[in-house]
């Protein structure tokens, strides 16, 4: 049988204190457990075990939107295709929408990407409503956050009654 691993006594410990002894088989088993966990993680990453993947569904509505800050703290939402005003969000309202935009915009900023490319707001046949940043491939699945949040984004999918052209 092999001898156990010995560790030095703590500084300031009494000279007659027994050093900590860890049996070598325990260390081997701990190392084997760590190796097994790493191998399982690598296998899961390569083969997709336990990965969450949303199934692709047909797109039933989509709108390309540009978001710009207004001087009063509001947000101007412009349909990128028609250049029409999609919405004007008053200051201090739509907190979740602002937070989702902030998170996606932060990704663009850290990647050095400007705001010229519009975001995609997509409604899928399975009911999901997703705000997608095509430049960073990041997205926010709005339907995961409840009906109030879905309503605030759902309004952006519908054209405004008097959709006037807006100059960029």
Describe, in plain words, how this protein is organized in 3D.
The chain is built from three helices and eight strands; from the N terminus they run ββαβββαβββα. It has a six-stranded antiparallel beta sheet with strand order 5-4-3-6-7-8, covered by helices on one side. The radius of gyration is 27 Å and the shape is elongated. The longest helix has 24 residues, at 24-47. With 168 residues, it is of the alpha+beta class.
Q: Care to give the gist of this entry?
A:
With 168 residues, the chain is α+β, with helices and mostly antiparallel strands.
Describe the biggest sheet? 6 strands, antiparallel
Through-space gap between termini:
79 Å
Shape: elongated
Order of helices and strands: EEHEEEHEEEH
Radius of gyration: 27 Å
| Assembly annotation | single chain
Number of helices: 3
């Amino acid at each position: 049988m092999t001898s156990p691993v010995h560790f030095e006594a703590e500084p300031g410990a009494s000279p007659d204190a027994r050093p900590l002894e860890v049996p070598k088989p325990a260390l081997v088993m701990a190392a084997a457990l760590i190796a097994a966990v790493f191998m399982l993680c690598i296998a899961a990453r390569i083969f997709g075990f336990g990965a969450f993947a949303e199934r692709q569904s047909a797109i039933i509505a989509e709108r390309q939107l540009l978001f710009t800050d207004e001087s009063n703290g509001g947000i101007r939402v412009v349909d990128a295709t028609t250049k029409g005003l999609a919405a004007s969000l008053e200051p201090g309202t739509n907190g979740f929408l602002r937070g989702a935009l902030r998170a996606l915009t932060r990704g663009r900023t850290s990647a050095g990407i400007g705001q010229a490319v519009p975001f995609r707001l997509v409604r899928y046949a399975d009911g999901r409503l997703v705000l997608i940043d095509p430049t960073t491939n990041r997205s926010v699945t709005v339907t995961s956050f409840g009906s109030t949040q879905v309503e605030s984004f759902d309004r952006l999918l519908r054209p405004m009654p008097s959709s006037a052209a807006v100059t960029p």
